[in-house]
Amino acid sequence: MKRFQWREAETAEEATNSTPTTVADLMVTGSRSNQRGSTRAPHATVIKAGGIDLLDLLKDNLIAPSELVNIRSISSLNQISYAKRQGLILGPLVTLAAIAEHKLIQKQYTALAEACSHIATPNIRNAATLGGNLLQRPRCWYFRSNDFHCLRKGGPECFAIPGDNKYHAIFDNEHCAIVHPSTAAIALVALGATIELTSAKGRREMPLENFFIGPNQDIERENTLAAGELITAIKIPDVETRSAHVKLGEKDSFDWSVGDCAVSLLMANGLCKKASIVLGAAAPTPWRAKKAEAFLVGKPITMDTAKEAATLALHGAKPLAHNAYKIPILQAATRRALLQAGSVS
Ligand SMILES: Cc1cc2nc3c(=O)[nH]c(=O)nc-3n(C[C@H](O)[C@H](O)[C@H](O)COP(=O)(O)OP(=O)(O)OC[C@H]3O[C@@H](n4cnc5c(N)ncnc54)[C@H](O)[C@@H]3O)c2cc1C
Ligand code: SF4
Questions:
Q1: DSSP labels for 309-344?
Q2: Is the CB–ligand 2 distance for residue 152 below 6 Å?
Q3: pLDDT of the residue at 36
């Protein structure tokens, strides 16, 4: 790990005034300047929240910023507030553990509490923040290795598509087959969350679903975070939906999923009025299963309709050489999440 300066920010303004670089920009610049691996970018400042992903990137020599700005002690960004009509507002520094343990979130935004409660391990959830979780970089093993100068790091080729792609995408995987790493994002997209971004120039807000971008929009980044911007809030409307998240993986703990699904259902008189079904570990972005969503409208949630919706959810999947096993896994996660959400009284 190379040496860097450390700065504490007490306010969001202090953090944005330090004109932070995004990690995506830094990885591409560093990688281009030596054609492989990182170099020290002159005056590159990077934001640090819980530091779980950032430290991995530093230790693996994938980035070498000259300065880290620690935002962990900005108390205004570590709040959970809820009011009728306003809905739920989460500061980006709220930890995954705080979300998982929050009684109102468990009851009203169940998919989010469930998703956060299954991320990594208890000690990681105590340190990891929601904002950092949404912005963690992909887990593709070629991307995480300094030995492979791949497309996402500004290089000439993808190594996973013709190589070892066991954990990679089965949708939208023609150019870069990462899967979106954030489990919280899957639940938040299903719940219709928006994201607030603040910089020295002002504030912008958008549906979280539109914040994430696929390889066809920009192969070097997973979202539209710009240099100088800070996530300052995640907002979820005051929903009347029932929701659930089911994560399936090789291990119960200490690992990302191989397939997960979040659903949010608006029910009336025993019938589904509106469904959101989002697949995780399936595509470079949280993947909306739109055919399955449309199929459920006007129907009750039964074993038969849940099975049919789960089949439709995987419609159009194009597995690579080593990951067709994900199709039945994601179907099972979808079916179980639908039955779980549909059975809540
Ligand atoms: C063994 C293991 C298993 C894991 N399993 C899972 C899993 O199943 N699901 C899952 O989702 N994750 C999993 N993770 C990843 C972990 O949850 C994330 O690394 C963590 O949530 C990142 O949060 P952080 O606060 O530590 O972010 P940091 O590492 O501090 O930051 C991450 C990125 O976000 C930027 N950043 C942070 N906050 C802001 C902000 N407010 N505004 C602008 N930029 C910001 C930083 O500059 C950096 O680029 C796992 C990790 C490990 C080690
Ligand atoms: S899947 Fe994406 S991140 Fe992985 S090697 Fe290919 S281009 Fe790089």
A1: HHHHHTTT----TT-TTHHHHHHHHHHHHHHHHHT-
A2: yes
A3: 47
